[in-house]
Specification:
It is built from 15 helices and 11 strands. The chain is α/β, with parallel strands linked by helices. The chain folds into 2 domains: about 45 residues, no CATH class; about 220 residues, 3-Layer(aba) Sandwich (Glycerol-3-phosphate (1)-acyltransferase).
Length: about 350
């Protein structure tokens, strides 16, 4: 007992309890070893008195309560799956004709029906100005790149189903190195874009979609919706050489559906500039209200330079953001818009 009394971090008024009043790392001869042994004896003593039968009883009581809350989630998932199935079934005749004509066309339309159903159910998705996308002939669609371009997937899917047109798209090189994605890119006509390849797509009479901001705009933008194009003018050179209309596209709340963390963006961007690898983590898939607005076509003037045309399109897109998006974006507000629209959104 005299040895224990020498140390102020033990309460020895009741040595049978061996209560620890503080924890110190002490090395004084064999003191540290003795302290450790006493501490372990204290732990084992209380573990021996742990009532395992009581814990089992508590779990037996809690399990039914937990399960009772989890089971409705399965019903909710089943209801969502049923709703998506009905959306797909709505296009059954088109799907049947597509499969009879071409297997891959049928696969595209089946997946498009799933995407359209998911968009409608999860985001209450709407497209305003869909008629501005031509049913025939070429056009260059320039869209704002959200953290994930989920809005472009919805536009493409709706165009496949409603206009029977496959939008061609320019994708970043890393997409084609993702395991298992190459077939998906081929079926949905996504390809790396050079000026000459894009000119070829438009000369063939297709709609081509480009997000000039690319991965940089996707990962390092924020709730203030900056347009991060830098000095990119490639799309403008394509439009001027093919004389096709340029159609700006913006989706309201696209940055509230998915986001990137604000911390560490500076050094993550430096890493991206060095490696061109999209290593920034992404979180979200929030069921926010999404509305896509398709702007008026901009017809290139033959006397316009690529820099001037790029500036004109960029300003048109910024005006659309200013008109249709409340800045800064807010996830809770975007969720609330599923059931209520402000006067600004109603007028738009």
């Amino acid at each position: 007992m005299s040895r224990l009394n020498d140390f102020p971090f033990f309460d020895v008024q009741h040595p049978e309890d061996c209560r620890i009043s503080a924890v110190h790392s002490v090395w004084w001869g064999g003191t540290f070893v003795n302290t450790t042994n006493i501490f372990m004896e204290y732990i084992w003593k209380h573990l021996e008195h742990l009532d395992i039968d009581y814990l089992t009883w508590v779990l037996w009581v809690v399990y039914p309560i937990v399960i009772s809350f989890l089971l409705p989630l399965f019903i909710l998932i089943f209801l969502y799956a049923s709703a998506i199935f009905l959306h797909v079934y709505h296009y059954r005749h088109r799907l049947r004709d597509a499969y009879a004509k071409d297997f891959w066309d049928g696969a595209r339309k089946t997946l498009s029906a799933v995407w359209v159903g998911q968009a409608r159910i999860w985001h209450g998705y709407e497209i305003h100005g869909f008629e501005k996308l031509p049913s025939t002939g070429p056009a260059l669609m320039i869209y704002y790149h959200g953290t994930l371009p989920i809005d472009f997937y919805y536009i493409m899917a709706k165009c496949i189903l409603e206009k029977n047109r496959q939008i061609r798209a320019v994708g970043d090189n890393f997409l084609f190195n993702m395991p298992g994605w190459r077939l998906l890119m081929e079926v949905f006509c996504v390809a790396p874009g050079t000026v000459q390849s894009c000119i070829g797509v438009l000369n063939a009479g297709h709609i081509l979609a480009i997000a000039p901001g690319g991965v940089r705009e996707a990962l390092f933008g924020d709730e203030y919706y900056p347009v991060m194009w830098g000095k990119r003018t490639g799309f403008a050179k394509v439009a001027l050489q093919t004389h096709v209309p340029v159609i700006p596209v913006f989706t309201q709340n696209v940055r509230e559906a998915f986001r990137t963390p604000s911390f560490g963006k500076g050094w993550m961007r430096k890493l991206y500039e060095m490696t061109r690898l999209p290593l920034m983590p992404i979180y979200g898939f929030f069921p926010v209200k999404l509305r896509t607005f398709i702007g008026d076509p901009i017809q290139p003037d033959k006397d316009t330079t690529p820099e001037q045309l790029a500036t004109t399109v960029q300003e048109a897109l910024k005006d659309m953001i200013k008109e249709h998006q409340r800045i800064p974006g807010n996830i809770l507000r975007a969720l609330f818009e599923r059931v209520y629209s402000s006067d600004k959104q109603k007028s738009s």
